[in-house]
Amino acid sequence: MLFPLPLRVACSLLAWLSLYAWSCHRYKHRNYEWSCRLVTLTHGILATCLSAYIGFIDGPWPLSHPGSPNTTLQVHVLCLSLGYFLFDLCWCVYFQTEGALMLAHHLVSILGITASLALGESAAEVNAVIFGSEITNPLLQARWFLKEMGCYHSFTGDVVDFFFVVLFTGVRIGVGAWLMYCELASPKPRWYIKLGGVIMYAVSWVFMVSICRFARRKSMKKYHAWRSRRSDELYLKTNGHLKNH
């Protein structure tokens, strides 16, 4: 016998709170954000794997079946993610760590998941949105942890940034546009589910603008550093101070 949806969401919220409490106890020498980021990383990995399995293996395919009835597995994953988003939204509001855009992202996610669970439909595309949103999350958290440990300005940090930009652009912007088109073209999904999808895609584009600015700044910084090293090498060669080996 399946538990009622509110109880399942409450259990999910309790599980994320318990993980956060354990992390705070385990890493007493770290700040609270360290523990919250561990929870976020865990959810990002779980949500990405589960939503990928639903979309690519279990089905139905979200691009061809938007607005279809929810499956049991889809409901489980939506309850899992809804509990996390409720936890993270409360944490961000309490500690005032995020701006209005991220809070809006969480609110729309919560409303979209809740609407899908209440209607009993459209979980296919909502799970697809979760997949697209969470696939870059582990890289984002890895970037933060690298900074905290003083390892960000390294080859590893460059690799993490590169794959984050590539995945965000390809999945959230590229595939996201395809999913939004299929959602809007289909007569099955409710109008407010479609509106939620458009808002989420618009939020992704706002993030994309910031990411493009970051990528440009980092690329220019790397280029100027390379030019500086190159100039130093040429100077040493010209003055005969660089020995050949």
UniProtKB/TrEMBL annotation:
<dbReference type="Pfam" id="PF03798">
    <property type="entry name" value="TRAM_LAG1_CLN8"/>
</dbReference>
<feature type="domain" description="TLC">
    <location>
        <begin position="29"/>
        <end position="204"/>
    </location>
</feature>
<dbReference type="InterPro" id="IPR042512">
    <property type="entry name" value="TLCD5"/>
</dbReference>
<dbReference type="InterPro" id="IPR006634">
    <property type="entry name" value="TLC-dom"/>
</dbReference>
<feature type="transmembrane region" description="Helical">
    <location>
        <begin position="158"/>
        <end position="179"/>
    </location>
</feature>
<protein>
    <submittedName>
        <fullName>TM136 protein</fullName>
    </submittedName>
</protein>
<feature type="transmembrane region" description="Helical">
    <location>
        <begin position="191"/>
        <end position="212"/>
    </location>
</feature>
<feature type="transmembrane region" description="Helical">
    <location>
        <begin position="34"/>
        <end position="55"/>
    </location>
</feature>
<feature type="transmembrane region" description="Helical">
    <location>
        <begin position="6"/>
        <end position="22"/>
    </location>
</feature>
<keyword id="KW-1133">Transmembrane helix</keyword>
<feature type="transmembrane region" description="Helical">
    <location>
        <begin position="75"/>
        <end position="94"/>
    </location>
</feature>
<keyword id="KW-0812">Transmembrane</keyword>
<keyword id="KW-0472">Membrane</keyword>
<dbReference type="GO" id="GO:0016020">
    <property type="term" value="C:membrane"/>
</dbReference>
